[in-house]
Specification:
Chain lengths: 638, 247, 223
């Protein structure tokens, strides 16, 4: 039986973190030099953690499957990063940021974690500015803020539409500084393929050098995973092509509980799929909904060109259903409504799987130049991909898988159910509940890396004196052998179907049954189809090349094999959660007005799953969520 | 439409490579260049042949992972885009498309179209940072920075490190890459303390990696997918001169 | 002195050296042109000018030595840079490379134009300068320059001179502005001014030089 003590400190909410930092045991500077910490993943969370821990004196072994830390997908975040600075003097506070985040997550996150996130948010901005990150500024030289979904204050700091890029390059700069100092040894193009647990503690990892194929064991006193989310399980998502769940999933198979896998965010404004060859979906910033109007034709089967459809034949459905929030409803609501109108046969474009986002009104009102100044780069990007000019014809948009709130379960110290295994950023489940607000992912990644893990990992290490374990230990040999065998097994399949095709099919099952809206029948279908497809994968996949050379097809196959297992758990979790909350919408549980209906009495917990064996249902463990500082209410945007 | 690809194939850094031709049929103009390569690769896999290796990741023009020399142009014929943003509508039926990896001594080939750009990381290690420890920073608004300086810093910081500047330069110079980072910090108050050491160390590392010298042809600016300006190189030169001459 | 060698051997230092020596040579061009223009004032004026210079022999010699050093340095540095840049581009070059799409012709052919100009310089010194040193009979300088031995009266020299001036303009079209880019002062408020001065150097000065063979060779020489 797993233990799910979240180790939330006692005391009033606002003092928990301060008190906890004081209570944590410290490692003295001379002893820090003796400890080695493995950091897997060097995006926002991983790079900031590796750099900060190295500054403290620990020896860091950092790993990434990219050639450089600067390639991590954190770089693609557009909008911004939240912080409770209250610079605009509009009534923001740490408590308000905490409250908005808890509410935005539909009351499915842990209060203490979210409060700490809001608390350290201000330090993040200070840190980033000191690193030379060029945030947008006002003419007076002070930092500018903009507003974002789910909040009534302006608390989002941004660097044009490239905030993620700038923050990642900031964390990267801190990391290369420590690489230069010799405190971080960075391993580029290395895939983590297993976690090594010795005497119940995470003590190392097994990696494959993607260039040479060499399998190596690495030993450490603690292991940090900062390996991002799993939205690529859908095949088509806004994630980068290589984003994967392998590190998390293999840790899960070694005993780390996976929490709320069914909480996957579908972003409403993406460029729709245009052909079956499409390899990824591109996000169009949420900010476009500030000035664009969403509509579809009133009548199904209306094939006229958008500009030929007169006003009276158009349905501005968001404005119609949600008169007060209109086009600015939260992501989950906007996504579901887009799907609904397309299901009614009113979708537009060649595939019928898109809605219009129309800028004609604002262009007429404020002029083309105004729109160009504000959204120029997004309009260019759209034209680049679709070949259509959005100044003249409305954009076509459709929802796409974007972010995963679920992830490995962690306690208040960000430690998983395996002692010594810490999980940061999108890879953990901790702060966003059932739905993440815009501009909160960057905040969480950096909070975990810069300001939480440096304290909490010390508290763990202080209780574990450094020992002389090395990779000759039996557990390392076993894990290494396991990795080698699994790669050989993949190469021995000798079918005739490219892995990508199988991945696409998995994605279609998930999209249809475990996507934006779910129901029992669909989920049960998914639970039949996913294992069947997995079986097919192990019979039909074709993976050319060898394991001891550069082999991108083998990398892909090993990741897709894990997705095939994770997908089943997502469906299992979605089936068990008989309520609708945030991004998890069960059709059986909705109000008369088709809004999500939570069941706080039975489901106010995080669902933490324990791996048993491939193909067998996982075991559910609940961590009840206790709300002492906020009142659970129903979200309404009418 | 149908296109013929002439692709550079090379098993690894220590074996010689050569061009191999492939005919790709049923290409739709809405496909991205990479989706066309994906389609070709899947057909190669079905035939039991090894697919073409190329670097790519975000496929939305920001991670800087991709980069191909397409018909003699870094990132293909369009201005201000990365290879992943290039779509097949930029080509016509019957075209022959020559695809080569970035070529420079400092970017050795790993396989096929993939090169090793870790030299860029080492240039960054030499000084591409402001030495600030986590936690010790003053309030973000403690030092006002003019909008002009902040915008200039942003324009420099927009570099994605793809290496197109090196690839297109006849001297394989990494000046635009190095200059972008030096510039970003040179215009910000936070960057002043280490200003001198930064430019000297980064230039020294750039030279040590085997990149060439800049001869101001401007090819880098013309091919940069983020349109990083030559202003940055001018600024680096000035910074270097100042740092060298002042005591 | 350590910093000095580091500077001189770094890629940016080499560029700055190229720019400095190049601009000094441009300055010399102005002085040279000033002297040449006396040709248009007639034989007496020109001869008098050259004789005046001869009377300042020690100073002229010093300037000549300095000028030679600058030239040697400019050329040696260019060779160094070119060889290093060749090495940097690696062993395999592109099969397809659309250089003309991304850069100006003048910027890519500095080595070629520079090399031809070097040949011109040697010929020019060997003919005019050497003759001035060895056969300096008073009042004969004008005749040497316009005559048909080594002067513009000789169509081969005249044409060669014209080609060289064309290449000089081409060389400076890139070189002059490039020098200011290298000093880092091209993209500020002086940018426009530099652009204007650049036109003087790459167009007006070489063109004025070129009028001399045209006038004395083609028009007055009558060939």
């Amino acid at each position: 039986m797993m233990k799910f003590d979240a180790h939330i400190p006692d005391g009033p909410l606002a003092e928990k973190w301060t008190q906890h930092k004081f209570n944590l045991k410290l490692v003295n500077p001379a002893n820090k030099r003796k400890y080695t910490i493995i950091v897997v993943g060097t995006g926002l969370a991983g790079a900031s953690a590796a750099a900060t821990l190295a500054e403290l004196g620990y020896n860091i072994l950092a790993f990434s499957y990219h050639e450089s830390p600067r390639r991590a997908h954190s770089i693609a975040a557009q909008g911004g990063i939240n912080a409770a600075k209250n610079y605009p003097n509009d009534g923001d506070s740490i408590f308000r940021l905490f409250y908005d985040t808890i509410k935005g997550g539909d009351y499915r996150a842990r209060e203490a974690n979210v409060y700490r996130l809001a608390e350290v948010s201000n330090n993040i901005i200070d840190q980033c500015v000191a690193q030379g990150i060029p945030f947008a500024r006002e003419y007076g030289g002070l930092l500018d803020n903009r507003s974002f979904g789910g909040a009534q204050v302006s608390r989002t700091f941004y660097a044009k539409g490239q905030t993620g890029q700038q923050l990642l390059l900031g964390a990267y700069s801190a990391l290369v500084r420590q690489m230069h100092a010799g405190k971080v040894k960075f391993h580029p193009r290395h895939d983590m393929l297993d976690l090594v647990v010795v005497d119940g503690r995470a003590r190392g990892i097994i990696t494959r050098n993607l260039v040479t194929g060499e399998i190596t064991a690495h030993v450490a006193d603690a292991v940090i995973l900062a390996t991002g989310g799993y939205a690529n399980v859908f095949y088509l998502s806004t994630n980068a092509m290589a984003s994967n769940a392998t590190a998390s999933w293999r840790a899960h198979k070694r005993g780390a509980a996976f929490a709320n896998p069914c909480y996957t965010q579908i972003h409403p404004t993406c460029i729709p799929v245009s052909s079956e060859h499409q390899s990824k979906l591109t996000l169009m910033s949420e900010s476009l909904r500030n000035d664009g109007r969403v509509w579809v034709p009133k009548n199904p089967g209306d094939t006229r060109a958008p500009n030929d459809i007169p006003e009276e034949d158009r349905d501005y459905y968001l404005e119609r259903i949600y008169p007060s929030f209109g086009n600015l409803v939260p992501r989950d609501v906007a996504s579901r409504r887009a799907k609904a109108v397309c299901d009614e046969g009113r979708g537009v474009g060649a595939t019928g799987k898109a809605v219009y986002l129309d800028f004609a009104d604002v262009i007429q009102r404020n002029g083309r130049q105004w729109v160009e100044d504000k959204y120029g780069n997004l309009f260019d990007m759209y034209q680049q991909i679709t070949g259509e000019n959005p100044y003249e014809v409305p954009m076509r948009i459709y929802p796409a898988p974007h972010y995963t709130m679920g992830g490995l379960w962690v306690d208040y110290n960000l430690m998983s159910t395996i002692p010594g295994l810490f999980v940061l950023g999108e890879a953990n489940f901790s702060d966003h509940g059932a739905n993440r607000l815009g501009a909160s992912a960057l905040m969480q990644g950096l909070a975990d890396g810069y300001f939480v893990i440096p304290y909490t990992i010390g508290g763990y290490l202080a209780q574990k004196p450094h020992d002389s374990l090395d990779t000759s230990h039996e557990e390392f040999t076993k894990a290494r052998k396991g990795v080698e065998d699994s790669l050989k097994r993949l190469l021995s399949i000798q079918g005739d179907e490219p892995v990508e095709e199988l991945h696409k099919r998995l994605g279609r099952i998930l999209w249809d049954y475990v996507g934006m809206s779910r129901n029992r029948k669909g989920l049960e279908t998914a639970l039949k189809e996913i294992p069947a497809l997995r079986e097919e994968f192990w019979k039909k996949a074709r993976i050319p090349g060898r394991e001891d050379e550069f082999n991108p097809e083998l990398e892909k196959a090993s990741r897709v094999a894990d997705f095939m297992e994770l997908a089943e758990l997502m469906a299992q979790d979605a089936l068990h959660r008989e309520e609708s909350c945030g991004a998890h919408f069960r059709e059986e549980y909705q109000t008369e007005e088709n809004e999500a209906k939570r069941d706080d009495e039975h489901f106010a917990y995080s669902a933490n799953w324990e791996f048993v064996e491939v193909g067998k249902p996982e075991i559910l463990h609940k961590e009840e969520l206790v709300f002492e500082n906020v009142q659970l209410t129903t979200r309404s945007y009418k | 439409m149908k296109v013929t690809l002439k692709v550079w194939r090379q098993k690894n850094g220590s074996t010689p490579g050569q061009f191999v031709s492939y005919e790709v049929d049923q290409v739709s103009e809405d496909m991205s260049f990479f989706e066309m390569l994906d389609m070709l690769n899947n057909s190669l896999v079905r035939k039991g042949e090894e697919p073409i290796s190329f670097d790519h990741d975000c496929r939305e023009g920001i991670c800087g992972t991709c980069g191909l020399m397409i018909n003699g142009r870094a990132h293909g014929p369009l201005k201000g885009v990365t290879t992943c943003q290039l779509h097949m509508r930029s080509f016509s039926d019957g075209d022959t498309i020559v695809v080569e990896p970035w070529r420079a001594r400092a970017f050795p080939v790993i396989r096929d179209l993939i090169v090793d750009r870790t030299a860029f990381d080492r240039i960054m290690e030499a000084g591409g940072y402001i030495s600030v420890r986590t936690g010790g920073a003053p309030d973000a608004n403690a030092i006002p920075i003019s909008k002009k300086a902040a915008d200039a810093a942003f324009d420099s910081a927009a570099c994605i490190g793809c290496g197109a500047c090196v690839a297109t330069c006849k001297n394989s110079s990494a000046m635009l890459f190095t200059a972008a980072k030096v510039s970003q910090f040179a215009v910000l108050p936070q960057g002043q303390v280490e200003r001198k050491e930064r430019v000297l160390n980064m230039v020294a590392q750039m030279d040590a990696e085997g990149f060439g010298a800049c001869t101001n042809t401007g090819a880098c600016e013309a091919e940069c997918p983020k349109e990083i300006s030559l202003v940055n190189i001018a600024r680096l030169n000035r910074e270097f001169l100042r740092a060298s001459l002042a005591g | 002195m350590n910093w000095f060698f580091q500077f001189m051997n770094s890629s940016v230092g080499k560029k700055i050296t190229m720019a400095t020596t190049g601009l000094l040579l441009c300055l010399y061009l102005v002085i040279h042109l000033f002297g040449n223009l006396f040709l248009y004032a007639g034989p007496e004026a020109f001869n008098l000018y050259v004789e005046r210079l001869s009377s300042l022999k020690p100073l002229v010699r010093v300037i000549e030595v300095i000028l030679t050093l600058i030239f040697v340095f400019h050329i040696w540095n260019a060779l160094r840079l070119t060889l290093a840049n060749r090495r940097s581009s690696g062993e395999i070059s592109y099969t397809e490379y659309q250089a003309h799409e991304v850069s100006a012709l003048s910027s890519r052919f500095m080595g070629v134009t520079g090399s031809i100009l070097f040949i011109f310089l040697v010929v020019h010194l060997q003919t005019i300068w050497y003759t001035f040193q060895t056969h300096h009979q008073e009042g004969q300088f004008y005749a040497v320059v316009t005559g048909n031995q080594v002067g513009f009266g000789n169509p081969v020299y005249a044409v060669f001179y014209l080609i060289a001036m064309f290449l000089l303009g081409f060389h400076l079209k890139h070189g002059f502005q490039s020098a200011f880019q290298t000093f880092g002062i091209r993209y500020n408020k002086y940018g426009k001014l530099i652009e204007a001065i650049a036109v003087i150097f790459w167009l007006i000065i070489p063109a004025t030089f070129a009028t001399i063979p045209i006038y004395f060779g083609f028009l007055k020489g009558g060939f």
